[in-house]
Amino acid sequence: MNALLRQRPTGFSLLELLAVVTIIGIIAMIVVPRVSVATDTSKSTVDRHCRATINGAIERWFLEKGTWPAADLSDLGTDLNYFPSGLPVSPIDGSAYSMNASSHRLN
Fold it and tell me: Which of 45, 47, 58, 94 is the least crowded, having the fewest Cβ atoms under 10 Å away?
């Protein structure tokens, strides 16, 4: 009888594998929508922060230099005192920020 126990194949049965795959699928159905919502929320939060930072830099530029920066913000982007690592871009769509020439705020 010991010989029969030793010859028995080891591994998982089809039902065990099916149960594990089902559990992983249920967990994925719960987690994936939450992650995508969290990603969108974080992108909009970073966008608001970038806008506030750039608007503050625009006002500081005017106070220091007496003129407004260019509408495409190239002045701010090239001056390392304002943005040493470069002017940030929109995290939502990757586009560059630009300033409204009449209100001197970001579009």
Answer: 94
Assigned token pair, 95: 């586009």
Tokens of 26: 């249920």
Distance of CA 28 to the CA centre of its chain: 21
CB 49 within 8 A of CB 90: no
pLDDT-derived band at 11 (thresholds 50, 70, 90) equals confident
Which tokens hold the place of 107? Answer: 């579009």
Is residue 55 exposed (0-12), middle (13-18) or buried (19+ Cβ within 10 Å)?
A: middle
| Category of 100 on φ-ψ map: left (φ > 0), alpha (ψ -120 to 50) or beta | beta
